[in-house]
Amino acid sequence: MSTAIRHTTAARLHEPGRPLAVEQVELAPAGDGELLVELHYAGVNPVDIYMAEGRVAGEAPRPRTLGSEAAGTVEGRPVLVAGAGLGAMRDGVWASAAVVPADAVIELPDGVAPQVAAAMGVAGLTAYKCVREVAAVTDADRVLVLGAAGGVGSVIVSYARAVGATRVVGQTASQPKAQLIERQGADRVVVCDAAGLLEAIGELEPTVVFDPLGGEFLAPAVEALAPAGRIVSFGTSAGAQVSFNLQTLYRKGASIRGYAGLRLGQQERREGLQAALQALARGEMRVPIDAVLALGEVDEAIARLKRREVQGKLLLDLRA
């Protein structure tokens, strides 16, 4: 890579809740333990929205570049960049180039395209951890994925199928999103809201429910769950406050398990990302890309995600 890069075009947070400023920023030289990365594509995630609104890392320095995951090159080698407080405690990767900690950089396996890799730092890692470790899905499991057209849910559908789940059912509230879930490998798609969930899934009796929604969806998920089943919670896009019948939960010997991605240590995150990238390279994970917007359209990307208009992952083209 050229060492002549001194400036980058970046999406910067000046004030929480205000539009981001896409502007030229001077790059400091890479120090010990750091690398200069030329960036090509970046993922847009709910946590990035929370940072833009000041709900996460509200006390972090400003102005700063947002973005927690991206794909690019280091000296011509394709890499994924993720973790290490990017976009939160230090400048992130919604930029054409960035100086990042070396342990946030992971080389891509052969056959993994940069566009898809850019979506792995959050969605791929979350899917891998939730399916393999938190739920420990096996061929004995019947899986229900709520919010199955979302950035993480859609990847979970493909991965749960690949690891051998006996049945995978995906839920969405939007009929136009059903085809995406089917393409990801779901045996069946149910289109319903929380009130209609029990009727829609019928006699499925899932042993595992993946839940990025929370809100009113948790109570019917608990009711539907098989004895000794488990619910994996990794988001609250339908609401953080929940109400459900606790007797139903404990009488079934069931459990609710949380995935706390923000609490992962950098080494644990790195190992998980390497495993997820290998699963992607083997074709076990599929990452559907909804759209790729130019960096200058970053506020439109955030708005689309907030309006839940996205099917799969939304990316930024950091060179456009």
Which SSEs are present, and which pair or pack?
Blueprint: E1 7-13, E2 21-26, E3 34-44, H1 46-53, E4 64-65, E5 69-74, E6 77-82, E7 97-101, E8 105-107, H2 114-117, H3 120-134, E9 142-145, H4 153-162, E10 167-172, H5 178-183, E11 188-191, H6 197-201, E12 208-211, H7 218-224, E13 230-233, H8 246-251, E14 255-258, H9 266-281, E15 289-294, H10 298-306, E16 313-317
Parallel strand pairs: 9-10, 9-12, 10-11, 12-13, 13-14, 15-16
Antiparallel strand pairs: 1-2, 1-4, 3-5, 3-7, 3-16, 5-6, 6-8
Defining key terms:
single chain; 320 residues; alpha/beta; Quinone Oxidoreductase, Chain A, domain 1; Rossmann fold; 2 domains; 7-stranded mixed beta sheet; 6-stranded parallel beta sheet; 10 helices; 16 strands; globular
What is the structure about, briefly put?
The protein has 10 helices and 16 strands. With 320 residues, the protein is α/β, with parallel strands linked by helices.
Structure write-up:
With 320 residues, this protein is of the alpha/beta class. It folds into two domains: 7-119 and 287-317, Quinone Oxidoreductase, Chain A, domain 1, CATH 3.90.180.10; 123-260, Rossmann fold. The chain has helices at 46-53, 114-117, 120-134, 153-162, 178-183, 197-201, 218-224, 246-251, 266-281, 298-306; strands at residues 7-13, 21-26, 34-44, 64-65, 69-74, 77-82, 97-101, 105-107, 142-145, 167-172, 188-191, 208-211, 230-233, 255-258, 289-294, 313-317. Strands 3, 5, 6, 7, 8, 15 and 16 form a seven-stranded mixed sheet that branches. Helix 3 crosses helix 4 (153-162).
